[in-house]
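ARCHIVE CARD
Drawer: 12
Card no.: 0347
Subject: one protein chain, sequence and derived structure
Cross-reference: see card 0346
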Amino acid sequence: MTIHTPGPWRVEFPTNPDAMSEVFAPSTDAYPWRVAYVMRDSNKRQQPIDDANAHLIAAAPELLAACREAFVLMPMSKR
């Protein structure tokens, strides 16, 4: 089984609308681990899509858990 950075991951949005969003995972020390930077377009109509992408990345641990649960429930013939 592949090891991954455990969740929950969270998104931090910049105060400057043209800056990058960041996705963080919890860590055992005082500083969270940066998992990803997400570019934000200066086009205001594109920013909601960029923000949704950041949330999708942050949901990766929960999505992985759901996939693992679904795999267990699949009949052996479908694997």
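Annotation on reverse: The radius of gyration is 16 Å. Residues 60-73 form the longest helix (14 residues).
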